[in-house]
DNA sequence: TTGATTTAGTTGCAAATGAAACTATTATCG
DNA sequence: CGATAATAGTTTCATTTGCAACTAAATCAA
């Protein structure tokens, strides 16, 4: 039981608060690392991450997969293109669209970030047994389904 | 195992990403509820929550307990005082400090918000067995200790 | 006691965010 | 076809945020 009686609430035990605080602490730390070591923001990193998995997707696809909104993708992509990490190839069939991809430099950054990102994740998970890590995974998935049932936040079926 | 090989990373399975997405979804939903039903922000709510538990604490204490920074507390408190939900009594011994507390109206809002907040938390936890909820609690605590060891985010010892 | 340091809290400001408006292009339907 | 609606993506703008600088008061140390 997280709370005592029916009508008491201790902020420290309140799930939305705990999630917010933990997520902020983690985000802050990892953002500092990305910034310091690679000079990219979390949003830029998310875009590199999905482009690393799937070359040639559109900005709208990126937004869907990173759960960023369109303006955020537009801005982060623009600066990645400026820095020569991402390429944009406009679609000849539908000229509203364009395919995004990693440049050679972008692929290099991607390859360099991955192990650091995984290492940080491992640092967090090191506190947990493999069974606990698996349990956490499952718990977060179930919570996400409740918090955002319409949107199916992750564990996307095959694309 | 969350990831496949040593050097692959699927954003959907990446813990910092998952925490961020889940926390944002939860925060968004609960912020909408606070706003719609009580016309308060999450930060105002946090302040009411700690003042409801401990009357007469200072702004610095509030900041420590809500993990908000001082300017955020200052601003949110100012608007709560404007609305007559919070009282400020300046300390006669040390005139830099002042004691914050809930006004009668503030206590009423506090009493009204509590059950709604708990109901939303229950909505989330309803997906989980009591053992799972307990496990989640423990997992989040352990992660917080890793993510922010210096700061001891919650489960504060007795005050 | 008085000058330097620390602490409480507020204000200012620059950057980040998010919603809505906008442009350009394609699709739909009479 | 030609007008209307829908879609991709960008830009604008108001709000929020977080940090640094600031004011006021108290403490410390000579």
From TrEMBL, chains A, B:
<dbReference type="InterPro" id="IPR000835">
    <property type="entry name" value="HTH_MarR-typ"/>
</dbReference>
<dbReference type="InterPro" id="IPR023187">
    <property type="entry name" value="Tscrpt_reg_MarR-type_CS"/>
</dbReference>
<dbReference type="GO" id="GO:0003677">
    <property type="term" value="F:DNA binding"/>
</dbReference>
<keyword id="KW-0804">Transcription</keyword>
<keyword id="KW-0805">Transcription regulation</keyword>
<dbReference type="InterPro" id="IPR036390">
    <property type="entry name" value="WH_DNA-bd_sf"/>
</dbReference>
<dbReference type="GO" id="GO:0003700">
    <property type="term" value="F:DNA-binding transcription factor activity"/>
</dbReference>
<dbReference type="InterPro" id="IPR036388">
    <property type="entry name" value="WH-like_DNA-bd_sf"/>
</dbReference>
<dbReference type="InterPro" id="IPR052067">
    <property type="entry name" value="Metal_resp_HTH_trans_reg"/>
</dbReference>
<protein>
    <submittedName>
        <fullName>MarR family transcriptional regulator</fullName>
    </submittedName>
</protein>
<feature type="domain" description="HTH marR-type">
    <location>
        <begin position="12"/>
        <end position="145"/>
    </location>
</feature>
<keyword id="KW-0238">DNA-binding</keyword>
<dbReference type="Pfam" id="PF12802">
    <property type="entry name" value="MarR_2"/>
</dbReference>
